[in-house]
Each structure stands twice: as structure tokens, then as C-alpha cells.
Amino acid sequence: MACEGNGMSDERIGEALIKDVIEEELKDIPSEDVPPLTPLAVEVKTEQEQKIVNQLSKMIRIIGDRVQGDKEFQDAIDGVAQSSSSKWDRFKEVASKVFEHGITWERIAVLFYVAGRLAVRMVEAHLPQSVTDILRWTVDFFRNNLLGWIREHGGWINSFSELAVASMQSMSSMSSRMSGLVIIFIAGLGLGSFITWRLTR
Q1: What pLDDT score does 97 carry?
Q2: How many folded domains does the chain comprise?
């Protein structure tokens, strides 16, 4: 059952999640260099939606740590930032690369993470106005290419188990920060289970 059946919106959750991931990636950039993102994406309407966004955002960050070491993805992100041709076309190329083997929850998480890293690269390249473009492009791509799939697969609430597994696989490959990530994972799994239990009652 998609989130809509519980009074929650998969579209709102997805847009808020994209914004949250981008803001998280930009948190170490001086605030005067970052344009406001609030008017561009809808806000969640309920506490349950906010809890889902917060939990998914944590799992995406863990999965993103694994992608951060992928030179091919980093080169693709750099290619968009440095491109003199249409950045929208380059963004679509990167998105197509993420989903070249089909849509999965983990690949959706990777796209959102890539959008956040791309936003950081744009600010570093002194193109902060492009951050709003990245948010808009990612939201458009999400609505046009991913939202239908998300609804067909039970909504965001059904993403927790697959993303938790992907998060755990990411964590097992990182020994130095293992203990902190395990705590986050266990807390996230507990919160995800609680939210799922509450919504299915």
C-alpha cells in the first residue's frame, strides 16, 4: 500500500527528501554561498512524513559514503559541474547512468546523493545559482521517472528494508567508522520498524 493510503504523500516525501539530502551535503559550505531552497520543493505536512524523510535521509547518507569512493561517479559529477554545454543534458546523462540497469530503492538513494554532491561542486565552482537548478532537475526527474515506480512498489514506507540492507552493506565495507554507523543503522531500523508498525495499524 503506497503512502497515499495512509494520508501521506509519496510525492511530498520524495521532494522533501531531495531537498534534505542536498541541504545536508551543503551544510559545511558557508551559508552566504548557498541560495535558499525552501520555495522550490514542497514541505512535508505531518510528523510521520517528517520522520520518514529524516530516516531515509540518514540511510541515503550511509549509501552515499560508498558512492563517494566511486571514481566513475565522481568524474560524472565533475563533468556536469565543469561542462560548458547544457548542464541539464549532462545531469540527465548522470541520472541515466544511475538507472542504466533499472530502478531500485538503492539507485534512487544514489541519485539523491549525487544531486547533493553536484550541488556542492556547483558552489565550489562559484555557480551557487545552479544549486536551485539541481534541486529543480532532481525533483522533475523524480516526478517524471521515479514517482510512478515508487507508488507501484508500495511507496516510501516499503523502501526501508531494502535501504537498510544497502546501508548495512555500505557499513560493512567501512571499518573506521563502523561503530557510529552501526548505532545509526540500528536506530534507523528501529524507527523504520516503528513507523511501519504505526502506519499499518
Answers
A1: 83
A2: 1
57 grid coordinates: 535521509
Round to whole Å and give the CA distance between 118 and 152. Answer: 29
pTM, 2 dp: 0.75
Give the CA dihedral 177, 179, 180, 184, nearest 10 degrees. 120
Comparing 32-46, 143-157, 172-186, the range with the smallest average pLDDT is: 172-186
What number of other Cβ atoms are within 10 A of residue 105's Cβ? Answer: 23
End-to-end CA distance of the chain: 13
Mean pLDDT of the chain: 77
- pLDDT: which is higher, 187 or 163: 163
Q: Which domain holds residue 48?
A: 3-200
Biggest CA pair distance of the chain: 53
Q: How much is the CA Rg of the chain, to the nearest whole Å?
A: 16
